[in-house]
Every structure is written in structure tokens, then in C-alpha cells.
Design goal:
- This is Anti-sigma-W factor RsiW.
- It comes from Cuneatibacter caecimuris.
- Residues 10-44 form the Putative zinc-finger domain.
- By secondary structure, the protein is mainly alpha-helical.
- The chain has a domain at 250-315.
- The protein has helices at 4-21, 27-39, 41-103, 110-129, 134-156, 162-181, 195-218, 223-247, 252-277, 282-287, 290-329.
- It is flat.
- The structure holds zinc ion.
Length: 332
């Protein structure tokens, strides 16, 4: 047991140890510390601990620096490759520019080559040149350049189809790419947890825009009364599955079962609904051979769903009873 005086001395030495360790104390203090260390094992182990901590800190700093430098070097290298690829793409572009100028009165098909190369560059050069949010930038760049290419071809061929293809391209790329790119979109705090909901709303709006664009383009008389209800029912089915997956908080097996039951009923019934919308009679529906297959497939899926629901209920009851038993055994 240390007496008061030696404890005070140890405290004083501990205050001096960091300076001693960094070699920035006076000569007098250094001798004082060393004299004390010879006779005090506690302060010696404190000095050893200090040395270890310093070493670990230095190691962490150096590791961070090396990794940071490596990342910077990689970024620089990728950017250089991007620039070189962009440079290489300029060669066919210049050749086409000259050919188009020589062969015609002015530039026409050159713009198609230009926009095609922009589409190519958007998926090769662009990801290498942007420093972060690569998926989001690539998706935006690819969509924009593809729309520009379609617009150029539409003008070149005097077409009237641009809006139809534009909506299809936006819908298709949104469905395929937006779930990945959405993570990189900066959103206000309240919406940050609702990205999947926003993606669903965005896709639904573009789907209905496509249905409308097809209606205007084909100008069919019966189009709207058929296309709108069928699209509404199919979209509602997709929304129901989404809501079930995202918002219903039950055992995962029950959730999977609910989705399977719903998908089964949808598979079994959708064809009948479409026949009804098309104004066909029940006899026509029953005469078409495929309804029996849809019914069988639908029933199998729904049956599997019911089994999953039963399993889920059993599992959650079991975990509930075991947790209540353990809480009775260890009342806190
Ligand atoms: Zn001491």
C-alpha cells in the first residue's frame, strides 16, 4: 500500500510521462522521471501502456494515410483511362464529320454518329470520370444520351414516334436501374427512409404515361376502355405486394405466404378478368384451353402460401411462448 507522499509523487510522474515519452521535457525532469521509474513498477507499466497506445495510434494513422493515398492514386488512374478512352472516341467522330461534310450539303447523319458515341461514352467514359455516385450518374447519362439519340433519329427520319419511345426508355431504365441508383440520390431527412416508396410512385407514373402514349400513338377507339382497367388491376397487384413486403410487420414466413396466396389468386383470376374487359362471354373463356392451367398453377402457389402462413404462425407462437417462459424464469 502506498503512503500519501509516494502516491503524490507517482501522480506527478504520470503527468510528466507523456512529455517524457515524446522527449520534450527538460533535462531535470527527465532525470527525475528515470530515477522514479527505477524504483516504481506501477509507473513503469504506465509508461509501457503509453508507448503501446502511441504505437497503435501511429499505426492506425499510417494505415489510413496509405489507404487514402492508394484510393487517390486509383481514382487518378481511372480518370486518366477515362480521358484516353474519350480521346480514342474522338477519332471515328472526326472521320465521320469529315465524310459527312464531303459527301453532303451539310451535316445530317453525323449527328446520329455523335449521339451514338455519346450513348457509348455514357457507360464507358462517364463512370470513370465522375468521382462519386457513379451508378446514379451513369444511369442519368445513359438515359439522357439514349433519348438524344432517339430524338436525332426521329428528326432524321421525320418520324412522330419519339415521345412513345422516350416514355418506354424512361420506364424500362427506371424499373431496371432506379432501385440501385436511388440509394445515391440525396433526399431530405423525412424522405430518406421512403426511397422504395418513391421509386414505386415514379415507376407507376411512367407506366401510366406509357399507356397514355400508346393510346395517343395508336389512336384506337376501344383502346382506353381496355388498357386502363387492365393496367390499373395489374398495377394494384404490384402495389399490394409492395405494401405487404415493406409495411406489414409480421413473421417473414407469414409475409411470404400472404404474397404467395395473393399471387396464386391473381394468376388464377387475371385471364378471366381480361376476357371480361374484352367483352367476351364466359363460354368463350371456358372454351379457351389455358384457363385450367392458370387455375391449377394459381391454386398450387396459393396452397404453398397457406402452408407458409401456417408455418409462420406456428414459429411465431413458439418463439413467443419460449420468450415468455424465459422471462418468467429470470424476472428482472
Ligand atoms: Zn510511481
Amino acid at each position: 500500500m502506498k503512503n500519501n507522499e509516494s502516491q503524490n509523487r507517482c501522480d506527478m510522474i504520470r503527468d510528466l510521462l507523456p512529455l517524457y515519452q515524446d522527449n520534450v521535457c527538460s533535462e531535470g525532469s527527465r532525470v527525475f522521471v528515470e530515477d522514479h521509474l527505477k524504483s516504481c513498477p506501477d509507473c513503469r507499466s504506465e509508461l509501457a501502456r503509453l508507448k503501446n497506445t502511441c504505437f497503435e495510434d501511429r499505426l492506425t494513422d499510417e494505415t489510413k494515410e496509405v489507404l487514402g493515398n492508394h484510393a487517390k492514386m486509383e481514382k487518378r488512374r481511372t480518370a486518366t483511362v477515362g480521358m484516353i478512352t474519350a480521346g480514342v472516341l474522338m477519332i471515328p467522330l472526326i472521320i465521320c464529320l469529315i465524310c459527312n461534310l464531303v459527301s453532303g450539303d451539310g451535316l445530317d447523319w453525323f449527328y446520329i454518329v455523335l449521339t451514338s458515341l455519346m450513348v457509348f461514352a455514357s457507360i464507358t467514359v462517364l463512370p470513370m470520370l465522375v468521382p462519386r455516385k457513379k451508378i446514379l450518374w451513369t444511369l442519368c447519362g445513359f438515359t439522357a444520351s439514349l433519348l438524344l439519340l432517339l430524338f436525332t433519329i426521329n428528326v432524321y427520319t421525320h418520324g412522330t414516334w419519339f415521345y412513345l419511345t422516350a416514355v418506354s426508355v424512361i420506364l424500362g431504365l427506371s424499373v431496371a436501374g432506379l432501385p440501385f441508383a436511388a440509394r445515391q440520390i440525396p433526399l431530405p431527412a423525412g424522405l430518406r427512409n421512403q426511397k422504395s416508396l418513391l421509386v414505386m410512385i415514379w415507376d407507376t407514373l411512367w407506366l401510366f404515361a406509357l399507356i397514355a402514349a400508346c393510346g395517343f400513338y395508336t389512336n384506337g377507339t376501344d383502346y382506353w376502355s381496355v388498357a386502363v382497367p387492365i393496367t390499373l388491376v395489374c398495377t394494384a397487384a404490384a402495389w399490394l405486394i409492395f405494401i405487404c413486403l415493406r409495411y406489414i410487420r409480421v413473421h417473414p414466413l407469414i409475409r411470404a405466404g400472404m404474397i404467395a396466396v395473393f399471387t396464386g389468386c391473381f394468376t388464377a383470376g387475371i385471364n378471366f378478368f381480361i376476357y371480361w374487359i374484352l367483352g367476351e362471354s364466359v363460354q368463350t373463356y371456358l372454351l379457351a384451353q389455358d384457363w385450367i392451367y392458370n387455375l391449377i398453377i394459381g391454386m398450387v402457389i396459393a396452397g404453398a402460401g397457406l402452408i407458409l402462413i401456417a408455418l409462420g404462425i406456428w414459429r411465431s407462437l413458439k418463439s413467443h411462448s419460449s420468450s415468455s417462459t424465459s422471462s418468467k424464469a429470470n424476472p428482472s
